[in-house]
Amino acid sequence: MCLELKEKNENHLVLLMDEMAIRKELRYNSKLDLIDGFECTGFERTNKIGKQVCVFMLKSMFSNWSSILNYFVSENGLTSNVLCGIIKEILRMISSFGININVLVCDQGSSNRKCFSNFGVSTEKPYFNFEGKKIYCMFDFLHLIKSLRNGLLKCDLKTPDGIVSFKVIQEFWEREENCNTKMCPKLTRQHIFPNSFQKMRVKFATQVFSKTVEAAIKTICDASGFKQSPQAVALSTAEFISKIDKIFDCMNSGSLYSDNCYRSAIQLNKEPHKFIQLFLCYLEGVEFVDEKKRVYFLDGMKLSLKSALLIVEEVLNDNSDTFFIMTKSLNQDKLENIFAVLRQKGGNNTNPSVAELNNILARLLAFKIIKNSSLSNCEETQDSMDQVITSVSNNEPELLVNEEEDNSLLYDFDLNDQWHENYFLEDSFCNQSDISLELVSIRYFVGYVAYKIIPRLKCEKCCEELRKKDEVLTAPSELFIFHKNYQSLTDFGNLVAPSEPLMSASVKHVIIF
């Protein structure tokens, strides 16, 4: 098994590349007897002052090992022709060491897209051959999610389920903006109306395409409905969000098993593997309403997903009982973390100079070279590059996370008696149009509290008093719990629908406090 894993590590390496803006500065390097800061692409050194640096990193697909290879300084970014030459030289150099790069990952910058095109890469053939070996090409899927959100801000999508519009999410947020309790407390103005800098943050995009937002939209559709957006558009938007949330989990898995099956590592014929295939077929019917709008991320998604499926088939066909692939190894998290370190060293240095980059990278690489002695009194922990990253600052960069909504929140309640009276009127579906979004969110919150308390109670009677006796949806305010359910065994799955006495007591506490 160890020999097989070692062989897989040597033959399945991932090459990451990404650019970062740097500060224009010239500084004399006494060790090399040259001036740092001029453009240097590896093939030639010019008299232009560099403003961009392209960093290349090598990482393993099956272990936590990673290493920075090199970086190249340019004035306005590397051209596609120069980039192709650098990539070929790196592939040739790595191959001479007896190891092989199997995957190439980058963002969807114009030079990167043209570089893939020069290699003959397309959605039908997401790889190119180099010295008789296939090199699979992928765009970082997390950046594609961000591009999808930015595209939806400008234009609606046509999908097999119907029209998808960001206006539905905007209307939902505006309705909840002034509520004391919210179904989606993490959604802020930055998510709905991002400025140019906020559009670059992947986290804001992934939190919009979440299970919680989908459940909230469906809850409103089943209750009072949307006033500005048609019901059909709202439902198709919710379905689209659900699919994006699942495919994000599939392409960002970090463990073998998870309570959410889509977050599990990819194994042949398991749920993540099947869903990627289904979503790829679904994408064939997705396009923008404005046919003249030029977009690249839809083709980028198709290319990346097809490449991931081919990698899975190549690696796992002969070892389906032994190996699995965690798709986190196919994204740019490691390199983005390095950029965060580069910006934090020496204070809040958003754009370090070339000379500063030399010093910082030298220190990072030193941590990779220096290893614990076998005679030391402690074990070596995780990848040393990760240790450097996590020890730089307690304020770690918020990167690429698709977390479930954190429900342990404190609200500044200011509810009136009329709202409390409306709660007791809710005993059937006859007045769904009058349902309060605050009532829906507080019932879910109280259910979450009960879910946390029940496992700690030893009294069966107390447990029965906290949760609803049956697992059937009977009240409009339970709609959010119903739509948040990941399972179909009961109406609520593992979630808890609080009992009426607990709900009544909680409402009274909300009014008082």
From TrEMBL:
Residues 6-120 form the Transposable element P transposase-like RNase H domain. Residues 330-356 form the Transposable element P transposase-like RNase H C-terminal domain. Residues 143-261 form the Transposable element P transposase-like GTP-binding insertion domain. Pfam families: TNP-like_GBD, TNP-like_RNaseH_C, TNP-like_RNaseH_N. This is Uncharacterized protein LOC125779296. It comes from Bactrocera dorsalis. The lineage of its organism: Eukaryota, Metazoa, Ecdysozoa, Arthropoda, Hexapoda. The gene is LOC125779296.
